[in-house]
């Protein structure tokens, strides 16, 4: 089964001038045609156009949703590229490449003691600013 890679680019928003093309629709079609031909020369196969939401900042704290047109292309990944993209085997924790130091444990206290509990009696401040009778 072939594997693919994809490329997504923004669709043209403005028509391109071309000889013999006078209408805005024709100019726009010409600009899309140029993009498709450029991508095709690079080996990309056109798949589809998509209209996707893009959340963007608006002002200092706001955000708005703008809709963007994009063109989706794909091309087959050859066997050499597929092998290069294959996941690399990571060494197990017991195996280390030469020259790479192993992590060493950080020394700490042998025994950890919990702090003393807070006393149940709390000296609360008076609710008024007047001196209490007991203080007299």
SSE order, one letter for each helix or strand: EHEEH
In angstroms, what is the radius of gyration?
Answer: 34 Å
SS class: alpha+beta
Distance, first to last CA: 95 Å
Give the fraction of residues assigned to helices: 10-25%
Specify the number of helices.
Answer: 2
Strand content: 25-35%
Counting DSSP E segments of at least 2 residues, the number of strands comes to 3
Side by side, the strands of the main sheet go: 1-3-2
Major sheet, described briefly? 3 strands, antiparallel
- Quaternary organisation of the protein chains: single chain
User: Roughly what is the average pLDDT, rounded to an integer?
Assistant: 80
Describe the protein's topology.
Elements: E1 3-10, H1 24-41, E2 45-58, E3 62-77, H2 79-85
Antiparallel strand pairs: 1-3, 2-3
Provide a brief overview of the structure.
With 136 residues, the chain is α+β, with helices and mostly antiparallel strands. The chain has helices spanning 24-41, 79-85; strands at 3-10, 45-58, 62-77.
Descriptive overview:
18% of the residues lie in helices and 28% in strands. The chain has helices at 24-41, 79-85, and strands at residues 3-10, 45-58, 62-77. Strands 1-3-2 form a three-stranded antiparallel β-sheet. A hairpin with a 3-residue loop joins strand 2 and strand 3 (62-77). It is elongated. The model has no long low-confidence stretch (mean pLDDT 80).
């Amino acid at each position: 089964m072939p594997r693919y890679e994809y490329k997504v680019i923004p669709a043209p928003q403005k028509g391109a001038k071309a000889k013999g093309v006078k209408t805005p629709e024709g100019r726009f079609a010409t600009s899309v045609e140029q993009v498709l031909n450029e991508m095709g020369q690079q080996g990309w196969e056109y798949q589809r156009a998509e209209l996707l939401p893009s959340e963007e900042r608006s002002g200092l704290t706001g955000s708005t949703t703008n809709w963007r047109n994009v063109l989706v292309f794909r091309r087959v990944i050859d066997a050499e590229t597929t092998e290069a993209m294959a996941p690399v085997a990571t060494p197990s924790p017991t195996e280390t490449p030469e020259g790479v130091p192993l992590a060493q444990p950080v020394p700490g206290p042998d025994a950890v003691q919990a702090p003393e509990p807070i006393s149940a009696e709390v000296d609360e401040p008076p609710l008024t600013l007047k001196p209490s009778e007991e203080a007299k």
